[in-house]
Every structure is written in structure tokens, then in C-alpha cells.
Design a protein that fits this description.
Length: 208
């Protein structure tokens, strides 16, 4: 991967793709995509099962969070001999430096046994193949703010957001203006200084 993420950020899948590998008449269909929690990962596996209901195995592994720091991982052999499917998939994932990633490898048995070594190579190879083509996007930690302020403060706030890659999530008009903004973590301190200077009230803040 030629791209370089900032230390506080990491790359995640930009969408879901599939690639197929055939080994001695067995088909290995690798599907990779983005998941942000264990529940999302298990739902991804179930969708894959539904798409290939007649396949013998749906083996998988995921890595959720920043792969350089606090990522959580899991794997499943789904009936293949222990250590021949989920672990090889996870090993490949862990060497890619991609977070919030799941790979499910669906196998259609071709009638020829591959042996433990053959299975490891096949599941690793299918995972390598799909991740080689997986488009990525950079995940940057953000802090979300819920704000309330007078109408003249709206334009300075919008201008600051445009200059610092902050996203205006919502805005409401009543006696005052209510807004929600997501601010890149590296700009949070300067944003809070800006809010203080403008007299903009922070109702709450959460990390994304």
C-alpha cells in the first residue's frame, strides 16, 4: 500500500468487493468490506451466507479499530480444520494495516481434499487477492459538538468549518441557532478556542 496515513488516523475499506480463487476445483470467494463493531461483522457474515446458501464453508476474520493501537480481532473456521481458515485470513489482514475490516471467504468444495497446508495457502491466497484490489479511505478521528449560538455567529462558524475540514452535521433555527459539527481531532483545541472567542455555547461533545 503506497498511501501513508497520519499517525492518529488509519485506512478503512471504501466499499465492499469480491474476488475469486480456484484451487483444485474448489472455489474460494473472498468478500472484503467495512464493519465498525462485532454486531456489524456478524451481520456481514450472515449476508454472505444468504448470498451463497449452498456453499460448504463461510470462514472469516475481522479487525476493528486502529490496527496500530487498539484494534480488536476475531476469526472463525466454520467447519474447516482448526487453524486452516480463520487464522490465515486474520494473519493476512493484520499485515495490511487496514482497520474496520472484515474478510469472509466462502468455499465451494471441488471434490479434491487440499490438506491442511493447502487450505492455509488457499484461504491466505484468496484474502491476499481481495485485499490487493480493495479501495481504501482514510479514517480520521473526530470530535462531535452540539452548539447553540446567536444568528450572527453562523457565518464565522461555517467559515471556520470550511477552513478546517469540519463537517456540519445538522443545523436548526429557533430563538437561537442549534448546530452539530464533527471536527477532526487534530483541530479540536483550536476549535474550542474559536468557540470561546465567539461566545458559542457547547451543549455536549463526543468522540467519533
Amino acid at each position: 500500500m503506497s498511501q501513508q496515513a497520519r499517525p492518529e488516523s488509519f485506512f478503512t475499506p471504501a466499499n465492499t468487493i469480491e474476488r475469486e480463487l480456484e484451487v483444485k476445483k474448489s472455489r474460494f470467494i473472498a468478500r472484503a468490506g467495512m464493519v465498525a463493531s462485532r454486531d456489524e461483522a456478524l451481520a456481514f457474515v450472515e449476508r454472505t451466507r444468504a448470498d451463497y446458501p449452498d456453499a460448504r464453508h463461510h470462514c472469516w476474520a475481522y479487525l476493528i479499530g486502529n490496527p496500530a493501537t487498539d484494534a480488536s480481532a476475531a476469526m472463525n473456521d466454520d467447519g474447516e480444520p482448526s487453524g486452516t481458515a480463520g487464522k490465515p485470513i486474520l494473519n493476512v489482514i493484520q499485515h495490511k494495516g487496514i482497520g474496520d475490516l472484515i474478510v469472509v471467504v466462502t468455499r465451494y468444495f471441488g471434490g479434491i481434499k487440499l490438506g491442511a497446508g493447502g487450505l492455509v495457502r488457499a484461504y491466505s491466497g484468496a484474502t491476499q487477492k481481495v485485499l490487493a484490489d480493495l479501495p481504501l479511505t482514510e479514517h480520521r478521528p473526530r470530535r462531535a459538538y452540539r452548539l447553540r449560538f446567536d444568528f450572527p455567529r453562523e457565518q464565522p462558524l461555517r467559515h471556520w468549518a470550511e477552513q478546517h475540514q469540519a463537517e456540519l452535521l445538522s443545523i436548526e433555527y429557533d430563538q437561537q441557532v442549534g448546530a452539530r459539527l464533527a471536527v477532526p481531532e487534530e483541530h479540536a483545541a483550536s476549535f474550542e478556542a474559536f468557540l470561546g472567542a465567539q461566545g458559542i455555547a457547547v451543549l455536549d461533545r463526543t468522540d467519533d
